[in-house]
Amino acid sequence: MSRTDLSLCSTGRPSYSAPARMRWRRALLPLALVLNACMPITPSAPATRAAVMDPGLPPMKLFSVPRTEPVRLSNADLARDFMDLALSLESGRPLDLFTRFEGPITVRLVGEAPASVPRDLDRLLHRLRSEAGIDIRATGGNAANITINAVSRAEIRRVLPQAACFVVPNVTNLREYRRARRSRQVSWSHIEARTRLAIFLPNDASPQEARDCLHEELAQALGPLNDLYRLPSSVFNDDNVHTVLTGYDMLILRAYYDPALRNGMRPGEVRARIPGILARLNPAGEGLAARRAVRTPRPWIEAVQTALGPGASAGARRRAATEALGIASAMGWQDHRRGFSHYAMGRILQANRPEAAREQFLRADHYFALTPETRLHRAYVAAQLAAFALADNAPERALHLTSGAIDLAARHENAALLSTLLMLRAEALDLSGRASEGADVRLDSLGWARYGFGPGWAVRAKLREIGALNPLSRNRDRS
Hints:
alpha/beta; Collagenase (Catalytic Domain); Serine Threonine Protein Phosphatase 5, Tetratricopeptide repeat; six-stranded mixed β-sheet; 18 helices; 49% helix; 7% strand; globular
């Protein structure tokens, strides 16, 4: 599996292969907030150690205690999700066997990893032990079940041009993967047991991007190989809303490593045992009614990928976004997928038809507001709408939009979104005559931006981008 590095303005189309299929991740919900242009969220130059030590910016801020939200879902829905996640590939192809590690799992980090990665890995391994009940430990030895290779983005793209990071079975390093990449050895559909895997993550990306890769790829190295758009509260979803493992994800992984299951089981055996497992692990879910969200049709997935992925012309993106909206409407969806369809259209229209884009963001917010599981989705929309409010010289509206979204971004450990919201709030405070408060909030935003965006030049670019929305700045530029 791989985490795909896409932006709304990127070119080229990813290639798919059996050993490591591309996953439509990374920028399906980009944070660029320029109303008349498109900027990539990830820096185009390496985030070097010298850049990280930029003396003109405050120290990088880090998240501490996880604030995982409990799962409030029917076990009938969870059982269906588990089977679809664990025994199917992203293409929809069913798997003949349930595979996982058996016994204690060791993880080794090699290469020139950024300073933030060892700490983030330790935090993740602790969560996997305490929340998912997985016997997993870091090791300094030469042999490990999972080897995390910190390599350059250029090295990753030489083997998978659109990937930000990826995981492959039955190899330890890139040299082994190059030799075996077209063989059954590294094909997920042909493995019968998980004993040795390699994860490749960028050592020259922002700390958050490296952390996000750790969460996503390690979770799939351990458990589900599929992603489902119907899941509102999971990293096992290609909409890229959640960037760290959620309470839902930890429950799925805990079930994955329950003693009642074992490597090599047939789908029917897993299906027979998963209800009893979930009854033990999530007793509250026994009394909840099933929602039975409909499956996501392949044409909608393909339309979203065309609209927000790389390689398509502006016209093709617009047509694809229109198709996605039409399918969502015809399906009668009232969930996050309907909201996401409107959000995608808003992103397409943002550069050339800002008022139409704003209307799409408002419609997206309407659907995201229907269920509590999509509060984080609303925080993304709030950032877009706050940018419009700021440009409209409506600081109180921008302050209202950012107030609740800031805590949501912090709760879900999304420093890029958090710093963006804080920068917007700082500009709104300046615009409302509260410059001293604005300066404090802006200073707070910079520490989070160091983690979310990386080098000092990327942080300053984001500051300039958002500052340009402020009418005071535009007036000063004209004077």
